[in-house]
Design brief:
- The structure holds 2 protein chains of 2 kinds.
- Chain A has 8 helices and 13 strands.
- Chain A is of the alpha/beta class.
- In chain A, the strands form 3 sheets. Chain A has a 7-stranded mixed sheet. A 3-stranded antiparallel sheet of chain A has the order 5-6-7.
- By secondary structure, chain B is of the alpha/beta class.
- At the A-B interface, helix 2, helix 3 and strand 13 of A face helix 9, helix 10, strand 13, helix 12 and helix 13 of B.
- Strand 13 of chain A pairs antiparallel with strand 13 of chain B.
- Chain A: Pathway: Glycolipid biosynthesis; glycosylphosphatidylinositol-anchor biosynthesis.
- Chain A: It comes from Arctia plantaginis (Wood tiger moth).
- Chain A: One of its GO terms (cellular component) is GPI-anchor transamidase complex.
- Chain A: Keywords: GPI-anchor biosynthesis, Signal.
């Protein structure tokens, strides 16, 4: 049996058909993204040892975006529990994507920006909207601008219209949609790729109304997202199905590869995932089959060759203002431990 | 008597709970919100800003002056953003003769400068000078020379495309970012400029470069000219042992080396990622402009960039920049330096010239397309041209005003949508001050006081940013209405129920009617 999400089927599951709307064909020149930097916000919202697989999920994506070139300074990683150092982990400092220990997604260096109880709805919305307390270090801020492409990955336990954070609170799809709209209004992104692996995941993006968002989810409303397999050595399910196949796909993507987003949407067919992968592309202006995957998962930045250096003939000399260089402190020496000079004088 | 006491008790419950308690509860749970100038914020939509710029046409005779002035006026009529205030006059006889007799254009500029104040921001002079090899001549000062009235179309074109750069100024307020806006840094209070000298192989090559003085002299002199716009902080650092695999291919050629290493353009962005890991420019709160000098090790030198069509780039320096990030120069040592003393002395003049060229674009100075008939004197020093600074002021003022307006509108819309956002006195003050600054900056722009308008628009921008990003805006956001009911109903319903029911009895009692019907049997 697969470990399914905790049942949050309190609400009626809407059996409405999921419609995809395809935009008009856009001229070729608009297919190229004009983003100037890439950011990733990766969030695991659930605690406790039996949710080991969610940490494995989020670290799988972390590993991939880092390998594809997004620097740690532009990845915001939120993990609510520390599975690698959990006393129940028989192999400390490792998290595997597979019972056969194929890939250690924990890797050598993981920079977690928000951990434990810092992973809260409030902090998540503060992070997205930029309304962080003034003493927040730069590494914990999402310093995006109108040229930023952002990958948002969420995993945890969800239901129809909400995602649970930390067993104590939820973010609703409306709150998330409002936060994204505030980001758009404040020009904090160029494009967003929203990726979510929870039960009834597609309910989280249905309320979105801001432009330039491409969203995909591991399951439709009314479906559970299932875990892939159990590792009997650690006694828990080790990774979720959808992310397992996503990682498998991303492992074969290289920084200069030309894989497209529509290939990404097909990574987990229903036969493999059991749940249906949902895609929402009506807010997105470009055709996903022409968008390289590295627009979101990598950091391919625009490079402009400089061919017009200024031939400086007048060598400038700036008037030195008052020296504000740090003074090198004079080196001091220890006195000899035994006062030899006193001894010598008495001899 | 018992009846009386019971009613008194009941009345006191009603008094405490409904007459005192309800208003008190209402008052204390009210969302605090300072009154905001919503109508002003909403009216920003229709408020289009115009910048008035001074232009003086000086010609030898009256007909030429008015002909040129009229043509310029007509050309700028349909501009939505820049309004020219054109003065025309005839050159005084003495100036006229000196201008025609001096040999060099630069001397002519000095002559004009002795009669007119060229150091004033937002002014520009179009002056006739007969002995000119080209139709129009332009250098770094706020003067343009023209030969005769036949040059009028070139003058108009130069004013539109180079001096005032209408398309760029309009692009600063447009909805989507134009090319210049995609490259330049977004507005801010100031910038850090960090020069990182990257030295991958310190064991094999010694690099002799005084990075601190180089950035101070060259970049420092450049940013001093822009001190009216921003505060700059200059820093320099050395990064040793930063290994980056360019995946270059060796190609034999006729040069001194006998070969060169070709690196493809699409590999260069990975160097930026590699650099970012080490430069640690995130330590400061202000945005950082990165300048990186990569000292190519001898075993990989000379490194040559190949473009996407697999052609060698034609440039004296191997350099590239990344929008909103910074620039990189690949410094190749010469064969002699690699062979003999193993000391590499990079040519500071060339490297800094490249960095300045990159910095200009990153800060928003765009180089215009050349115009036929116009001679634009190439830059020979680090200093930007005077009219480029004026135009940068116009671009940035427009950009900051537009950004501040959008931020405030977005905030106003948000406050309308979500009712339990607190606006405390500080946020209210920021918003009010931003609104005031926007209006003042708009007035100053119309009056043509460019520097003051810039400073005011910067204040407006920073105030609007502070108001939008204020952490207290989210204070009550996670106490939605349904959760309020979850608390109030179990707390108040059991108490309020009997109190409300006793109201009926109280009313009856006041009217003197019997409360309990006496049992008839």
């Amino acid at each position: 049996m697969y470990f399914s999400c905790k049942l949050y089927h309190v609400l009626l599951t809407v059996a409405g058909s999921f419609s995809l709307s395809y935009g008009l064909e856009i001229p070729k020149e608009f297919q190229n993204s004009n983003h100037s930097n890439n950011w990733a916000v990766l969030v695991d919202t659930s605690r406790f040892w039996f949710n080991y697989r969610h940490v494995a999920n989020v670290l799988s994506i972390y590993r991939s975006v880092k390998r594809l070139g997004i620097p740690d300074s532009q990845i915001i990683l939120m993990i609510s529990d520390d599975m690698a150092c959990n006393p129940r982990n028989p192999r400390p400092a490792t998290i595997f994507n597979n019972a056969h220990e194929q890939i250690n997604v924990y890797g050598d260096d993981v920079e977690v920006d928000y951990r434990g109880y810092e992973v809260s709805v409030e902090n998540f919305v503060r992070l997205l909207t930029g309304r962080v307390p003034p003493d927040t270090p730069r590494s914990k801020r999402l310093l995006t601008d109108e040229g930023s492409n952002i990958l948002i990955y969420l995993t945890g336990h969800g239901g129809d219209g909400f995602l649970k954070f930390q067993d104590s609170e939820e973010i609703t799809s409306q709150e998330l949609a409002d936060a994204l709209e505030q980001m758009w209004q404040k020009r904090r992104y160029n494009e967003i790729f929203f990726l979510i692996d929870t039960c009834q995941a597609s309910s989280m993006y249905e309320k979105f109304y801001s432009p330039n968002i491409l969203a995909t989810a591991s399951s439709l409303v009314g479906e559970d997202s299932l875990s892939h397999h159990v590792d009997s050595a650690i006694g828990v399910y080790i990774i979720d199905r959808y992310t397992y196949y996503v990682l498998e796909f991303l492992e074969n993507v290289h920084p200069n590869s030309k894989r497209t987003m529509s290939e990404f949407f097909a990574v987990c067919p229903k036969s493999a995932c059991i749940s249906t992968v949902g895609v929402r592309r009506d807010l997105f202006k470009r055709d996903p089959s022409k968008v390289p995957i590295t627009d979101f998962f990598g950091s391919v930045r625009k490079v402009i060759i400089t061919t017009d250096p200024i031939d400086i003939l007048e060598i400038p000399k700036r008037k030195r203002k008052a020296e504000n260089k740090t003074k090198v402190i004079e080196k001091r020496e220890y006195l000899p431990q035994f006062p030899m000079h006193l001894v010598q004088s008495t001899v | 008597m018992i009846e009386y006491n019971r009613m008194l008790a009941s009345a006191s419950f009603v008094g405490v709970l409904i007459i005192i308690g309800l208003p008190l509860w209402w008052k204390t749970t009210e969302v605090y919100r300072v009154s905001l100038p919503y109508d002003k914020i909403n009216s920003f939509d229709s408020l289009s800003h115009t910048i008035t710029a001074e232009l003086t046409v000086l010609a030898n005779d009256d007909t030429t002056a008015s002909e040129i002035a009229n043509l310029i006026e007509k050309a700028f009529q349909d501009s939505t953003i820049i309004k020219l205030r054109i003065h025309k006059s005839i050159l005084s006889h003495s100036l006229h003769t000196t201008l025609d007799s001096v040999a060099d254009e630069h001397e002519a500029v000095e002559e004009v400068a002795s009669h007119f104040d060229l150091s004033r921001h937002n002014s520009f002079y179009v002056v006739q000078r007969k002995p000119l090899f080209q139709d129009v001549w332009l250098a770094g000062e706020r003067v343009m020379f023209f030969r005769d009235s036949k040059a009028s179309s070139t003058i108009v074109e130069a004013l539109k495309g180079i001096i005032y750069q209408l398309s760029v100024v309009e692009g600063a307020s447009s909805e989507s970012a134009d090319i210049a806006r995609q490259i330049r840094f977004p507005p801010g209070a100031g910038y850090h400029v960090v020069l990182s000298v990257v030295h991958p192989r310190p064991d094999a090559l010694k690099v002799d470069l005084d990075a601190g003085n180089a950035i101070e002299d060259y970049i420092g002199s450049f940013v001093d000219e822009l001190s009216v716009l921003y505060n700059f902080t200059l820093k320099s650092q050395w990064l040793h042992l930063l290994n980056f695999d360019f995946q270059s291919t060796e190609i034999k050629d006729e040069s001194e080396w006998g070969h060169h290493f070709a690196v493809r353009q699409d590999r260069l962005h990975l160097l930026l990622t590699k650099l970012e890991e080490r430069t640690a420019t995130h330590v400061s709160e202000l945005p950082t402009i990165n300048l990186a000098l990569y000292a190519v090790p001898c075993d990989k030198a000379p490194l040559v960039i190949y473009d996407e069509y697999d052609q060698k780039i034609s440039s004296p320096v191997q350099a590239f920049m990344s929008p909103k990030w910074g620039g990189v120069v690949l410094a190749n040592p010469s064969p002699k330096e690699c062979a003999a003393d193993q000391i590499f002395r990079p040519d500071v003049r060339v490297i800094m010239g490249t960095f300045i060229s990159q910095l200009r674009k990153l800060l928003g100075i765009t180089d215009a397309e050349p115009i036929k008939g116009l001679y634009l004197e190439p830059l020979r020093s680090v200093k930007p041209r005077q009219w480029e600074i004026d135009n940068l002021l116009r671009i940035k003022t427009t950009e900051q005003l537009t950004s501040a307006e959008r931020t405030l509108q977005s905030l106003a819309q948000l406050l309308g949508e979500i009712s339990n956002i607190v606006i405390n006195d500080e946020v209210g003050a920021s918003i009010n001050s931003a609104v005031e600054s926007i209006q003042r900056a708009s007035d100053l722009m119309r009056e043509g006081q460019l520097v003051n308008a810039y400073k005011t628009s910067q204040n407006a921008f920073l105030d609007a940013e502070t108001a939008f990003m204020e952490p207290s805006l989210l204070a009550l956001l996670y106490f939605p209405d349904d959760q309020k009911y979850a608390i109030y109903i179990p707390l108040f319903l059991p108490i309020m129920f009997p109190v409300v029911l006793s109201l009926k009895n109280l009313l009856l009692w006041f009217r003197g009617k019997p409360i309990h019907k006496e049992k008839t049997d």
